[in-house]
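Changelog note: in this version the structure field was regenerated for every chain. One regenerated record is shown below for reference.
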Amino acid sequence: MLLSFDPDSLNLPAGHFVGGAYLRAEGVLPMHRPSDGKAFGACPVASAELVDQAVVTAKVALRESGWATCPPRQRTKILHRWADLIETEAVTLARLEAFCSTRPVGELIDGDIAATAEQIRFFAEFADKEGSELVPTGAASLGMVMSEPYGVVGAITPWNVPLSMAGWKLGPALAAGNAVVIKPSEMTPYSTLLMAELAERAGLPSGLINVVLGDGPTTGAAITGHPDIAKVSFTGSTGAGAAILANIAATGIKPMTLELGGKSPQLVFADADLDRAINAVASSILSNAGQACVAGSRLIVEERVADQVIAGILARMEAARAAPTWDETSRYSPIISERQRQRIGQVVRAAIAAGAECLTGGSEMDHPGYFYQPTLLAGVEQASPAVQDEIFGPVLTVQTFREEDEALALADHPTYGLAAGLFTRDLSRALRCTHALQAGTIWVNRYGRSRDHILPTGGYKRSGIGKDLGREAYLANRKTKSVLIAL
C-alpha cells in the first residue's frame, strides 16, 4: 500500500462541523506543518456564540433522535458501522493526520487508526450491557440505582495523537447515549472533522457530534463554561487542566475527566532482561519524539548495569533519522512547533549549564521542519528542571541507584503521577514497587499501552482526575439516581 503523499495536493476539510454541515469561517490562528515548517493556512476560532449554536444543535439532535432512549443495541450497531468506516477510510484518515501533526503516516494504519476503530467497538458493546440495577433494601421497599446519560458532553483533545484522543472522548460518550461538542487542537483538527463525517455516514443522527475549531482561551473556555454542557472531558497539560478547573468553578460545577501531564520514571534493576528494558525505554522516548503525556522521560537504572543500559539506548537514539511525516518510511517525529522546539532547547541548555552531561543530542536536527535530536542527559540533580518539568520532547534523563528504596525515592515526583515503568525478573520486587510507585498506570517489563482497552488510564496527583478507557470511561459518561419505592 502506497501511503506517501504530496502534502500540497491534499484536500482538507474546511470550517467547523455543526449539525452535519460545514460552517466556513475566516482563519485566525496561523497553521504550520511541523515536518517542513511551511505555513499553509489558518484555523478559525469559534466564538462563544458559535459554541452556543453547537450546544443547542446537540440538545435538539439528542431530543429529536431519541438517541439517549432508543434500544441500546441500536446505538451499538451504529457505532460498529462507524468503526468499519474508520477502517475503510484509513488511508484518507492517515494522510489527514500526518499532514500537520507529528504522527508519521507509516505508523498510522496499523497503529492509531486500527486502535481507534477498536476503541469505538469496545465502547459500543457497553451500550446494552451496563445499566440500572436493583439493590438490596428492606423487605417493605424496592431499591434501584438508575443510570442515565448526562446529555451534552464537552470534549477537548490535544495535538499529539489527535485521532486516538478523539476516539477516547467520542466512543464512550456516544455509547452512553450522549451528544458531544468537541474541540480538537487548533494545530491538528482535520482527522477529527473527518471522524464526525464518517459517524454520520454510518447512521449516527446528525448533530450528535459537533466539531468546533479554535483555541483554549476563547473556544475551550466557552465549552467548559457553557451551562448546558453537562460534563467535560479534557486531555492536555496540567496548566490547561487547572484553567479548566477554575473556569468550571466560576461558571457552574459539573463533573469532569482530566488526563493531564506526566514526568514518568522507568526503573531498571540489574536482574531485568536488559535487552527488553533498553528497547522499551528507548521506544518510550523516541515514539512521537517524546511528545506524549506518558513518555518515559526519567531513566532510573541500577548502578552496576547503568553503562550497558545507557550504551544500548544511545545506539537507538543515534540511529534516529528525520523525515517528513508524509513519507511512509519515516519513524521519527518532528516537534509540533518552532516555539516548542525552542523550549526544549532551553531546558536542555540550562541542564548542561547546571552540570548535566549531554551523552548525545542536545540540539536541533539539520533538516527542514521542527526536528530535535534525541537527547540523553546524565549527571542530573533531582531538583533540575530537566528532571522535574514535563519537557514534551525527545529528552531522557538518567539517574543511578544502588538500593530499591533509593530507586523509589528518585521515582517519586512532587507534581506528576501519570505512569511508571518497572523492569525486573523478581516478582516480589515487582509487586513491592508497584504498590509503592505513585502513578495511575504501572507497566512491568514493558512500557506503553496495549490494545487491551479494558484497562483504564488516568493519573495520580496533578496528572489528572478520573479515567479514560476501560469500563470506568463508559460509566463516567452516565449519571445515576437512587430510587426507593415503598411497597
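Spot check on this record: Residues 363 and 373 are 6 Å apart (CA to CA). The chain has a mean pLDDT of 97.
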